[in-house]
């Protein structure tokens, strides 16, 4: 199953999916207000900060995963039901939708991301609903994913020994020239830089699968290679994992990412080009 769905395909099969609106941007808190002002009919709002992350200690990073039981409870609150596939969308380059895709996919849910998100839906002439949609409590019984598809700080340190660890941040952050958020600039020793912009078009959509595969290959992340990804706080790393799925690459994610690594005493820091 392809991880993306077009606005046209969604329009034609709207009743076949449970829809989740995950509008969110770093530093903004108006995702719910945007949702209430207009959303795809039937979509339920998901709060990225509350439902797809949890409050953690500094060494866990800014956006640690919720525990399995909390995610299962949230999924039922959203109305997810057995056998009904899910489509998630946002309006920020499919970034928060990628986090939702990755978290739910790990938990055994059949989920796809709306290609181009909310803007693509509007451009295709899709219907708009306002107000709040409250779903009946779902019956989905999430599998307990545990550590499936996830690596921790210790694993991130050793991953380059047997595979490829990808840093999805912009090149200047990877090289340690700037660091706008975290306490230390630089990257995890041995990591390769694959900025997320290299797999996206200028308007924030994913490039063709062949182009994405070429970008992965260029940094040694060939098909069949053990691949893991990190970013600043674990959100963009999930987007790189989605790009990998489009290009038939299985990508594990380090949710703590640089925010966890740079807040863990004693961890080495690399700077400059790899």
Could you characterize the architecture of this molecule?
The chain is α/β, with parallel strands linked by helices. The chain has helices at residues 7-12, 31-37, 48-51, 68-77, 95-106, 117-123, 153-162, 171-174, 209-218, 235-246, 257-261; strands at residues 4-5, 18-21, 44-45, 86-89, 111-114, 164-167, 192-193, 227-230, 251-253. The strands form 2 sheets. The chain has a 5-stranded parallel β-sheet. Strands 7-6-8-9 form a 4-stranded parallel β-sheet, with helices on both faces. Helix 8 (171-174) links the parallel strand 6 (164-167) and strand 7. The longest helix has 12 residues, at 95-106. The protein is globular.
Shape: globular
Main beta sheet strand tally, sense and closure: 5 strands, parallel
What structural category arises from helix and sheet content? alpha/beta
What is the tally of beta strands?
Answer: 9
- What do the pLDDT scores average to? 93
**Unreliable stretches:** none
Q: How much is the radius of gyration in Å?
A: 18 Å
Note the gap between the termini.
Answer: 35 Å
Estimate the strand proportion. Answer: 5-15%
Number of helices: 11
Spatial order of strands in the largest sheet:
1-5-4-2-3
Q: Which oligomerization state do the chains in this entry correspond to?
A: single chain
Helix content: 25-40%
Give the ordered list of helices and strands.
EHEHEHHEHEHHEHEHEHEH
